[in-house]
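User: Sequence in, structure out. Go.
Assistant: Echoing your sequence, followed by the structure tokens.
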Amino acid sequence: MSSTVSELRRAWAALEAGQFADVEDFQGSGTTWTPAVGERVLPVVGAHNNAGASTLALAIATVAEPARVVECAPTTRSGLVGAATAELGPRDGWLRGTRDQVLLERWDDENLLTSPPPLASDLDLTVVDVGSRLPVHSVPPWLAESLGEVLPVVVVGDFSLPGVRRVQQALSAPWGGSWVVALRGPRPQRSPRYLRRALDDIDSSLPLVHIPDDPRLRLRGVDTAPLPPLLLAAAQQILTVLEPAWRKEAP
């Protein structure tokens, strides 16, 4: 029996609303991911579509290199498909490439929920590009479990009224241990008053990092060209903010 378009739309809306799954369902099924001893894991979450999570994840790994980026997106939605300067080919379901001293791993399929855990790594930092696929219901089991741990998480969104609202929603998620907020666009000091007021609804104790909006990246996306220096400076600021917490967690 075939389904009508309206039925499929209703089913998809229910799935997106989380009616068929929750965090416990994901954590209790599938395989799990155990990072190597000493391997730091930093999820970067897009508060909305096209927030720049992939670009920021790559920038953070570039500043911290040698490091790797694990992108959690179907192949057709990858933001890093043109980022590698050398391709290493597929391995255990992951497409691998390198960009200077950054290892890139992308899921080689459309069904993200069936993706296996990331490959073992001897690098000190793994940046997980979560994209805009926020928990509870749209991430693979190994990622849902990892996000349930007490990890620092970077959430990135546009510095606009809709973007700030979506960041606020992301911050209410019952996962992650600490947050860094990254807003892409004008600096708050140079923004309209209504945007500055919108920031008042975000916890003032959370680190806030400005991400410059680069016109070239907006138009072309990430390719093999070097990332803008101002973007790398923002990525370095995020790592600097996180360093005290990471040192405290070190054995």
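User: And one key feature?
Assistant: The longest helix spans residues 229-249.
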